[in-house]
Amino acid sequence: MNSPNILLLITDQQRWDSLGVYGAPEAQTPNLDKLASEGIRFDQCYCNNPICTPSRASLMTGGELPDHGVMQLEDVLDQRQMMFPELLRQAGYKTALFGKQHVSSRVIEHRERHPNDGFDTYQWCHEPAIHTGSAFNGYAKWLKEKNPNFLQELGEKGRRIGHFPNELHATRWTADATIDFLNEQSGGDTPFLCIASVFDPHDPYDDYPKEVAARIDQTKIRKPIPRSDDSTLPKGILLERRMGYMARHPQDEADIHDLRLGYHASISFIDEQFGRILKTLENADLKENTIVIFTSDHGDMLGDHGLMAKGAFFYDPCTRIPLLIRWPKQIKGNQHTNAFVQLNDLAGTIVEAAGISTPLRKQFLPHSKSLLPYLTGQNICPPRNTAICAYRHTGYGNSSKGSQYIPVSATMLREGDFKLCLYHDEANDDLSAEGQLFNMTADPYETNNLWNIQEYQATKRVMIQTILDWIDKREGGLTRFQSDRIPT
């Protein structure tokens, strides 16, 4: 067998600095840290959008935000779009999904599959507490066999159920199902793509097995980055802070500490279960020819800058995500790079590693930059000089009238030492460009906004023009701002 197997491990809402290998003092992640030591760690990986659906659509199609048409949380991926597993399936791979997909609205996904998702085995679970009656819900079927009383309780209480038992946790189910699949591949000649996609550490933050909390040294839990003066913030961030779906969440010091404890406990449990999966690769004699990729769809603010979860802001805790890749046949191990990469680059990387022809990759994945040269030890220029993250009225708020999208459009550019965040739509009712500019080398916590500092105006103008060019090329002039209106 020449084509490598692919094992893609995905978490939900996991910020980059939540693993020991990324320097998190409170992290208990020995298995993922070991995975990094055996492969390559990407230190500057950014999502394409800081909300689940558009971000995952970018991952699965290889497209940047405008390319696939999924802009908002409840958008639906067009049926003509091709997901990269379909390309692998057509190339002879056996393909499987266990867990969350979310390239379209969950309301659609629980009723019907995307015709080009490409999975031979499809055991879906959007979130453990909802859509338990879906015909695709593998977790609910598993629970019905193991403990029907708990399944009923879960249906009645939903997210209010609190701590899940270890043996009934959705992350445990994902690991068990993945392990069964891997064991079935042992000794076979057909390459496989297996995606294990868990819902945690997404809120609610108290769904981890209760005993796992003892692993976390609470004295090492970091305090949040202080809240910025509201007068320095763009209207879009202020609107998100007031209207975001977690805006009413308590933000006193004790509450933030508790949710951070739950967050890291969930990650520790994920690490344990993913560790079981990685051990199975070894036991099934699949490790050497399997590319293992670990990542997430976006991050979580956890109270940093006075913000919760995710939304119309581009601070690193929200947009920068972990990315670890191991390929024993190619990567020596203990490597890392500061090159800019984005979540949608994984599609092109996987498809090229599978040996799919260049014309097909260019046809279906024109904006996905392959990371394969990093995995094969070639000395090349970085695939990207910049990273762009776009928010287009993406997430809904906490209105009592139901899901209402927050009217904010904004775009982030990460280039060189700098990050620029441009807010350019309805939130700015006076049509004046607002934003943030940070020197990420000198100010990694993003506390010193250089937007109005005179010596950085030239940098600001060039970066804004780069954003406007990107918008014009991909979205047909969505923004109402022109370069001659950029304040100096």
Automatic annotation (TrEMBL):
| Entry-linked InterPro entries | Alkaline_phosphatase_core_sf, Sulfatase, Sulfatase_CS, Sulfatase_N
Question: Is Ligase there in the keyword field?
Answer: no
Q: Which residues form the Sulfatase N-terminal domain?
A: 4-356
Key word Metal-binding present: yes
What are the record keywords, sorted?
Calcium, Hydrolase, Metal-binding
Lineage top rank: taxon: Bacteria
The family note in this entry says: Belongs to the sulfatase family.
What is the protein's name according to its record?
A: Sulfatase-like hydrolase/transferase
Origin species: Thalassobacterium sedimentorum
